Structures are given as structure tokens and as C-alpha cells.
Amino acid sequence: MTSLAERLSGPASTTIFEIMSGLARELGAINLGQGFPDLAEPPELVAAAQRALSERSNQYPPMRGLPELRAAIAAYYSREQGLELDPAGIVVTSGATEALAASLLALVRPGDEVILVQPLYDAYLPLVQWAGGTARLVSLEPPLWTLPLDKLAAAIGPKTRGIVLNTPNNPTGTMLTRAELEGVGTLAERQDLWVVSDEVWEGMVFDGTPHVSPLAIPALAKRTVKIGSAGKIFSMTGWKVGWALAAPPLAAAVAGKHQFLTFTTATPLQWAVAEALTLPAEWHRAHRARYAAAKAQLVEGLTAAGFAVLPASGTWFVTIDLAASGLAPDDAALAEQLIREAGVASIPVSAFYADQPERGYLRLCFAKQDATLDQAVERLVAFRTE
Ligand code: PMP
Ligand code: GLN
């Protein structure tokens, strides 16, 4: 039997996002670390939530989500991505985080190996481990962060059962191409692997690169759980309404875990998201344009100040290439120096690695008001010229 102290002595349990936001509050730094917007919240969404609280139900909804929300999710993906979803394949969850947890708990058996792609979002590794699995790590190749299919193939062993993908990628902002996904499809078919595809950033793509979901790849359609988040599509990160989309038998397995994780997700917010999902494509274009302008502002400011910013198609983040910016490639040390000396919080990309981290890249969140971004750039310029 392990003692209580031993059980509590695992790896640090606080995420890099919490640590940097906590430090930013303590030091009064501008927070370009954790990804959340400080832009005006869409008033029509706030109004929808208020109406839902007073006019709809505040009691438990059906376990898999309100039928109206599931229908709205199906209509949204049909319109935006040409996906035809069966309502029996939709499970509404408390954010994408819960969808990830329910999916991995449903799919990973003790002793299974799961391929994780680095840089990786922080929740994947602990969730695979909690389910009794072990991770095999494959790294995207900078500076364009391409997926090396040969290395992916080499990482698949006899115990490998699944792959977790993230497109658009947090932190790099890059997207998997159809060709890369078809390559994954060939490998997945060969060994009957499942795919959990974290696509929370699918709505925040700015450069016209098409978002391709593994659900749209014939070899992957039946073996993929696609995960989305209303928090990201509508820039309401605190709403924590997400979903898992899959072929009905896979969705039923995910629902089986969801019912004992949270059982259901806040009813009024489900109504509000159902209404929000009926907003026309034009609304989404205007919403994205506001974020595209913020991105352009930060990229311009950083570039003028001598920082080399890597290309990114989506997410609320850009990354700085430290070596190309004439800076020492030690992202964690620089992040610490920036928050303490320049008063700007960032996230070191090395925090997204479980082994062999890349240390030459720093992530900044641009989803902020113009004045906040201007002030952050001013501080970074002053830091460089000191
Ligand atoms: N996956 C990725 C890649 C994310 O960036 C985030 C949040 N930033 C999540 C999952 C979690 O989303 P949610 O807040 O809906 O749980
Ligand atoms: N996903 C957000 C980010 O990348 C943070 C979410 C969290 O703090 N868990 O900044």
C-alpha cells in the first residue's frame, strides 16, 4: 500500500496556464499567456444566455445533451464543414476537456499504448495515464510543424491502440493537411487504431487554409472521435460547453463515461449555445475578422521590434522563433524574464512537451484589446533595447 504522502508526491499538478496567469496577477503583468480573450463579449450571446436562464429550464437536461443543441451542432457542421452527423453520434459535454476525458476513458484500456503528438495540449498525457495507458511520443517538425508520417509509423507498436491529434494545433497554430490525415488513415486502418481529434480551434482560422477533420477522411470516419468547444467557437471560454462527435457506437462508449464524469452540462448554457449555433456564416466571418485584426496588430508590432514570428493559420496564438530573433533559445528562462522584467506573460512552448522539448519558441496570445496589445509590444521593445 502506498502512503498518502507518496500518493500526493507525483509531478507538479498545476498547469503552466494557471502558473503564468497567477504570476501575471501577482506581478501586474499583461497576460498574453493563458488563452482567453479580453475583447467585448458578443452581446447577442450574453442575451441568449440571460433569456435561457429566465425562459428555459434550469433543471437536468438529457444526459447526452438537449435534442435542440444536438440538432444545432449537426446543422452547424453540415454548413461549415460539410459533415453529415447522426444525432445519435453527438454527446454534449462540459467543455472539450470533459469530452477528451470521456473519450480517452472510453477508448484506452490498461496496458494500451497511445500515440501523442508533441507539442501537446496539457490534458492528453494525464488522461491517457489515468486510463491505464502509456504514451508514445511523436514530435511535429519545426519551423513549419509538419507531421513526420515515417516517425509516426515507426512509433506504432503491437500494443498501440490509438492516436490523439490536434488541429489547428495549440500552441503552434498550424493545421494538419488532408494529405497528412490520409497518411494517418492508412496507418490507422492497418492496425485498427482509433483517433481522438481535438479540433477546438476549428472556428478560429484566419488565412483561408481549409480545416480538415479526420471525420471527413474515409479511412478515419468510423474510427474518429472529433472534439469541439463552444467556448472557442464563440470566444466564451468560461461557458465550458463542448462535444464529442463520432459514429454512434463510439459515441455511445463516450456517453457511458460522460454520464459518470459530469452526467450533464449546464442547461441554460446549452440553450444559449443552441441559439448561437444558428447565427449565420456572416456572423462567424465578422467574429473571426476581429481576431484576425488583433493577430495582425501583434504580429506587426513584434516584427517591427525585431522578433521573428512563425506563420500560424489558426488559434489565438502566435509563436516567436527565438534563435531567428537573435535571442538565446531557452524559452522558459525568457518567459520568466519577460514576466518579471518586462511585465508581459507568455507561455514557453517547451511546456507542451513530455520529452525532448523544443526550447526555441515562445507562445503569445493575441486575443486582446488594441490598447493591451500596444502596451505589451511597447514593453517588449523596451526589454529588447535595454
Ligand atoms: N484542447 C485544446 C487544444 C485547447 O486549447 C483547449 C482550451 N484552450 C481545450 C482543449 C479545452 O477546451 P474547453 O475549455 O472547452 O474545455
Ligand atoms: N487552452 C488554454 C490555453 O492554451 C488554457 C486552458 C487552461 O488554462 N486549461 O491557453
Give the topology.
Elements: H1 4-8, H2 16-27, E1 30-31, H3 43-55, H4 67-81, E2 90-93, H5 95-107, E3 113-118, H6 124-130, E4 134-139, H7 149-155, E5 160-166, H8 178-191, E6 194-198, E7 224-229, H9 230-233, E8 242-245, H10 248-261, H11 267-276, H12 281-304, E9 308-309, E10 317-321, H13 331-342, E11 344-345, E12 347-348, E13 361-365, H14 370-385
Parallel strand pairs: 1-11, 3-4, 3-5, 5-6, 6-7
Antiparallel strand pairs: 2-8, 7-8, 9-10, 10-13, 12-13
Helix pairs in contact: 3-11, 4-11, 5-6, 5-10, 12-14
Bound molecules: 4'-deoxy-4'-aminopyridoxal-5'-phosphate and glutamine (GLN).
4'-deoxy-4'-aminopyridoxal-5'-phosphate is lined by residues 35, 95-97, 121, 166, 170, 198, 200, 229, 231, 237, 240, 242.
Record keyword descriptors for this entry.
alpha/beta, 14 helices, 4-stranded antiparallel β-sheet, binds 4'-deoxy-4'-aminopyridoxal-5'-phosphate, binds glutamine, 13 strands, about 375 residues, Aspartate Aminotransferase, domain 1, 2 domains, Aspartate Aminotransferase, domain 2
Count the strands? Answer: 13
Structural class: alpha/beta
CATH class of the largest domain: Alpha Beta
Q: Write down the overall mean pLDDT.
A: 95
Looking at the structure, the CATH topology of the largest domain is: Aspartate Aminotransferase, domain 2
Named at the architecture level, the CATH assignment of the largest domain is: 3-Layer(aba) Sandwich
Question: How large, in whole angstroms, is the Cα Rg?
Answer: 21 Å
In percent terms, what proportion of residues is strand?
5-15%
Largest sheet: 7 strands, mixed
The CATH H-level superfamily of the largest domain is Type I PLP-dependent aspartate aminotransferase-like (Major domain)
